[in-house]
Amino acid sequence: MTRYNVDRLVLVPDDIDLSRSPLAGHLDAETYVLGAFNPGLTRLPNGNLLIMVRVAEALRHPIRDGHVHAIRWEADEGPGRYVLDAWPLEHADTADPRKFMLRGGGWKIMALTSLSWLLPVELTPDGLERVAIHYEKAIAPQNSLQCYGVEDARISKVAERWLMTTCSVSPERHSTTLYSSANGFDWTFEDIVLDHQNKDMLIFEGLIDGHYWAQTRPLGDLYFAYPPGSEWRAGPSINLAHSPDALFWKPSARPGIRPHAATVSTARMGGGAPPVLTDHGWLTLWHGVEPHEIVGIYRTYWSILDRDDPSIVLHTDHSPLLEANAKLTKPIEDQMYLRDVVFTTGVADGGDHFIVASGEADLACRITHIPKTIFAVD
């Protein structure tokens, strides 16, 4: 649902030309766009907006001949190549269409039915119309720590430099990697910056006391309980880290935003859009997940953090800012495989409103104009 006048999908799977995909010509198997979603967002020097879209390119028929298949990038001479790996179906749990779990280990082992790459799409200054799709500047795996794909770009402009964090997926590690740009278009791979499973690293759009700051969200299979009666719930939380150069990060000893025990809507949570500075402090848009069926219900929430010490949460609104909007996805109903999911991934200044970019249903890119007055706090 939505309460905003400007709220629309600006990119859907059918808008992607897979003949121009980095995978084109590599696989002896049909692929399709499972989703074009979770767009990083920034404003370019020419005034237009850029969304860096995660294109999840999936096998049309991942299960065949008694096996389930995964796409993998393999280092080779030149730019490398894409190959298929086959796993015996009796060893796999295929209940989730996005992935399959492999049985028999002492821990969770997962593979994907798709491989993600990043596609720059230029939008008009208000974010509502497409100007160009820049296939020639797509970002795809380029080393072994990205062999299962590059996912979920988050873009921050700090001074005159653009920084983009991405999630790189491989059997080696589930890590955060950093790209940089002098113009928001041409990106250079910098390095791996977080070596633990972390899908939600968001660099603040500005320095604090001369340091870069970021929200992080390390994951694990074990969380320690808060004492009985605590206002907090044990589980994934939004942590903080700082860095002198955006490459080497030190976790902050103080906690960031934690899930509240009073609501199941944030039983699982993580960062959304990179924090931006307002008159009231750092505005951060983040996601909370209510347990439901396999994936859960994803909603967007917001908080204001102290401008000098972002570990201090000045205000949090427990009412959702954004929820999934079935009216938006009705024209592409035949492509839906998830519901009740909105995942906010970018925010830009639009004057008297913010332009908010989200992934809708892990399927499409959504732009919403949200009045700045909503975020005014005393």
Largest sheet: 4 strands, antiparallel
Q: Write down the overall mean pLDDT.
A: 95
* Biggest β-sheet: strands ordered side by side in the sheet: 1-26-25-24
Unreliably modeled segments: none
How far apart, in Å, are the first and last alpha carbons?
Answer: 28 Å
Order of helices and strands: EEEEEEEEEEEEEEEEEEEEEEEHEEE
Keywords: Glycosidase, Glycosyltransferase, Hydrolase, Transferase
Protein name: Glycosidase
InterPro entries: Glyco_hydro_beta-prop_sf, Mannoside_phosphorylase
Pfam family, one: Glyco_hydro_130
Keywords:
48% strand, mainly beta, 1% helix, 1 helix
Question: How does this model look, in words?
Answer:
The chain is built from one helix and 26 strands. The protein has 378 residues and is mainly β. The protein has one domain (7-375): 5 Propeller (Tachylectin-2, Chain A), CATH 2.115.10. The chain has a four-stranded antiparallel β-sheet with strand order 1-26-25-24, with no helix packed on it. A hairpin with a 2-residue loop joins β4 and β5. It is globular and about 60 Å long. The model has no long low-confidence stretch (mean pLDDT 95).
In short:
With 378 residues, the protein is mainly β. The protein has a single domain, classed as Tachylectin-2, Chain A (5 Propeller), CATH 2.115.10. It is built from 1 helix and 26 strands.
